[in-house]
Amino acid sequence: MFPGRKRMTSGAMGDISEAKVMKLGPQEGKESGPKVFRSKAKILKSGAPVDSYVHIVVVGSSKCGKTCLIKSFKGEPWPPTSNYRSTPCLADVRFLGGSKKSMIWDMDARPDFLEARREAYEETDIILLCFDIRGESTLSEQTEQWLQEIKTHRPHTPIMLVGLKQETRYDRSLQGQITEVEANQLKIDRGLEAYMEASAFHRSGVVEIFEAAVGITVGNGLCNKVMWRDRGFRLPLAFTGGFL
């Protein structure tokens, strides 16, 4: 268990593959997908204790595909129609016959947003470090600055390495793609929790990444959300629907 974490009594990691994203039922004129809250202020309000939710931060170089990963997970139509906003969203992920509320932060990669990332890192349970497998930049170039930043601001938090744009593995016109062997070697060398790949375009492997993140987090024990609890914030007990 990582320092500063509280072991949950029901925290056996179990079979990650059992986890399923809870989606809205079909509704006329609405997209089906996890219910999402656009505002941190609206996420953190009276309701369920904040200690019970999984805090997931998603980082990676600009245009690596992390925003499309989250939009695909949320069930948004392809191609994405909304502009990028570095805001958290809230979704229920089924786990071991129940569900875990998960707050997912899509972080802006620009240097000017370091302070915002530092805030997001506080009391996060797991970090998804994303990269573009097409290899326009090397794996080291895409990940080293993030590994150093995480080591500085959140050294004991588990990290999942996530390769994106998996559909390009079948494009024979591309050369220099980052291989699974390279990525798995980085995972071993840097002590990362897991390596997974996904295609937001094909919606392949997307849900499984967030299932795995929740499973790893619950297995390690959730962080005590002291910062949020001391400020009097709570999560909603139930979703009220749609985008806010």
UniProtKB/TrEMBL annotation:
One short Pfam name that applies is Ras
Question: SMART domains recorded for this chain?
Answer: RAB, RHO
Q: Which Gene3D superfamilies match?
A: P-loop containing nucleotide triphosphate hydrolases
Q: What are the GO BP annotations of this UniProt entry?
A: ameboidal-type cell migration; cellular process involved in reproduction in multicellular organism; developmental process involved in reproduction; hemocyte migration; melanization defense response; small GTPase-mediated signal transduction
Q: Which GO terms describe its molecular function?
A: GTP binding; GTPase activity
Q: Which domain of life is it from?
A: Eukaryota
Keyword annotations: GTP-binding, Nucleotide-binding
Spell out the InterPro entries in the cross-references: P-loop_NTPase, Small_GTP-bd, Small_GTPase, Small_GTPase_Rho
What NCBIfam families would the database entry show? small_GTP (TIGR00231)
- How is this protein named in the record? GTP-binding protein rho4
Q: Which organism is it from?
A: Trichonephila clavata (Joro spider)
